[in-house]
Write a structure and sequence with these properties.
By secondary structure, this protein is mostly beta strands. The protein has no helices and 20 strands. The radius of gyration is 16 Å and the shape is globular.
Length: about 160
């Protein structure tokens, strides 16, 4: 695996990243401790944290946040401003008042299967799976698993009924 993306955009923080072939990372990104598959494009103002895994031939659009515990399959489209959540009960401090450490919370892993599309502004809560080829509508909040091939929208995300417009 290459140790750098195939372009030379400025203003990036890239540390301990496994890159596939022909990965392009645009300016103003933070990538650390993650892996990114072949032919994937990472847009501006994206952060991908330690432990995240991105498949091949993905498009990660601008202003997206991908945290630890997220696995994204091949050929996935992640729209602008998509947020992933990996903690069901986030807190700044532990019971005694000290800042939380890794021991004070539970990492909830999330999987986005091959060919799925996540609409701009969607929020994907921890511990869910978005099935292969599924579509998550813009602005949706995914709180439970999305079946393969399904289209979901709304808050919380669900399969729209026939009156959905």
């Amino acid at each position: 695996m290459p140790d750098a993306p195939s372009n030379d955009a400025p203003y990036r923080l890239i540390d301990d990243v496994e890159f596939g072939e022909n990965v392009v990372v645009y300016s103003f990104t933070n990538l650390y401790g993650c892996s990114i598959g072949d032919d994937t494009r990472i847009g501006t103002f994206v952060e991908i944290q330690r432990g995240a895994r991105i498949g091949a031939a993905c498009k990660i659009q601008s202003h997206t946040f991908i945290c630890d515990g997220i696995t994204i399959g091949d050929g996935v489209f992640v729209g602008h401003g998509v947020m992933f959540i990996n903690d069901k009960r986030p807190r700044a401090t532990a019971d005694g008042g000290a800042l939380q450490t890794e021991d004070d919370w539970e990492l909830l892993e999330t999987t986005i299967e091959d060919g799925a599309s996540l609409g701009s502004g969607s929020v994907i809560l921890g511990g869910v799976t978005v099935g292969a080829g599924a579509i998550v509508g813009a602005g949706a909040v995914v709180t439970r698993d999305v079946p393969a091939g399904a289209t979901v929208a709304g808050v919380p995300a669900r399969v729209p009924d026939s009156s959905f417009a």
